[in-house]
Amino acid sequence: MKTPEITPLSDATKRTAAAQYARDGFYIAPAVIPSELLARVRKRIDAVYAGEYETGIPPCGSPKGSSEPPQKLVKIDNAHRSDRTIFELVTHPAIGEWAAALTGAKMVQVFACQMLIKPPGRQGGVNVGWHQDQEYWDHALTGELFTAWVAISDVTAESGPMRFVPGSQHWGLLKAGDFFSDKLDEIKARFQGKSGGGKWEEVAAVLPPGGVSFHHRLTVHGSGENHAASPRVSFAIHFRTEKSALQENVKWQDVGYLNDFADPVGSPVSYRA
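Above: the chain sequence. Below: its structure as tokens.
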């Protein structure tokens, strides 16, 4: 596969973006994924959801395929192992370049990803509860870890966009979150009670198709119901840099959906200086 050509970021853009990321714990980048690739990915999302695995490797957990539209939030781990077009998206060099610009990393590597489909409607099971990503990695990984969230559909204010709490990465790991809970107000109260007086503000990551947001492993984030007419479709790509490692005395077979750093399919390198 030929590596796509991208326009390098200017030094001024890198400095401004890195400063905002360090201050707020997140950064909302412009659309960087070509529309042609987005169209191909959208078709392959439907295929993976239906249980069609192009490579013969099922996503983590071997989810049962379905031809019925989802009624609750769909989260399928590591679909990039199952489909070459999704792998192409996850390893797109524009995402890697932005990631390196924000963190100053010399190397950026995927260690997991999640395919997310949030259906419209007011039924339960469609929210993403406030959480910090490190809470789900703390048993296995340490160091510089972060997430790129890639919009496949148009993520509007009505479609239940991800919401960040600026500066919350400075609160430390509070272990107050719950990704799978609909009770956003209860979780918010837990975070506020543990934050030591941290200011709670919310910024919605409204993104066009192909837009990308990045957030720190400790940044508090979550999302509400999708009130738009169509599903909100996205990928959360989890990255590490050279300043991270597997926790001491932890073995890869014990870390769940996270991929061995030595696995070039599960953990491809997206950027190297």
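The radius of gyration is 18 Å.
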